[in-house]
Amino acid sequence: MKKFLLSDVKESSQQAAYLFIAANVLWFVGGVAGLDYGNFGNLIQLFWSFSFAGIILGFKDLHGDAIPEDWRQGYTMLAAVVFVTSILGSVNEDLNTSGIWTIVGFAIIGLGITSEGVIGNVWRYAAIIAGLFMMISAGAEYITGNQLVGEDNPIQFVGWITFIAGVGIGPLLAWNKKE
User: Fold this and answer.
1) How many CA atoms lie within 13 A of 137 on its CB side?
2) Cα-flanking dihedrals φ and ψ of residue 134, to 5°?
3) Which of 16, 41, 119, 176 would staple 170 via disulfide (CB 3.0–4.6 Å)?
4) Total structural domains within the chain
5) Is 59 inside any structural domain?
6) What torsion do the CA atoms of 12, 14, 15, 18 make, to the nearest 10 degrees?
7) What confidence tens digit (pLDDT) does each residue in 50-81 have?
């Protein structure tokens, strides 16, 4: 247990990416099958929140000196914001967190743009598409109060898949290559 808690940034980021992918698969299976996870859904949300924040925390070391110091510090702040917003949004569904997710979408676009040579191009472009999708859909909800794309819309599935690919799989593969 101590080794798990004190693992280096590479191992922590890889573990976070695997957990992120697993949590998203659980949400996908539950959505397709129409499952109600009940309180287990809160646990999945907690794991998803930890994993997404863990992936973001690893970006500053994954990129190394390829990004300026303000981006490196920004990733730490973004990880905290993502974790708190995700948990608060799951506890209180009436809480409007779309403005924060708009900013996160912008940061994901930045991830895709700044990670040239670090993350493979396919995964970078997936991150850019996911960030655009998140920024536009969350931004529209923030401004109008209405969802631009409903939960049953197939385009939401495309945005979700690109999000998993660009934020989960891309960094995982980049960490696997990094020495």
Assistant:
1) 19
2) -65, -45
3) 119
4) 1
5) yes
6) 160
7) 999 999 999 989 988 878 888 888 889 999 99
Q: How far apart (Å, rounded) are the C-alpha atoms in residues 75 and 129?
A: 19
DSSP letters for 57-107: HHHHHHHGGGS-HHHHHHHHHHHHHHHHHHHHHHH-TTS--HHHHHHHHHH
3-state helix, strand, coil in the chain (%, to 5): 80, 0, 20
- Could you list the residue range(s) of the whole structural domain that residue 163 is in? 9-177
CA pair distance 75, 133, nearest whole angstrom: 20
**3-class SS at 119?**
strand
How many helices (H) and strands (E) in the chain?
8, 0
Whether residue 20 is contained in a domain is answered as yes
Structure tokens at 17: 């990416």
Cα 48 to Cα 67, 84, 151, 153: the distances in Å are 26, 12, 19, 22
Which residues neighbour 104 within 8 Å (Cβ) at sequence distance 6 or greater? 78, 81, 82, 85, 134, 138
The pLDDT of residue 1 is: 63
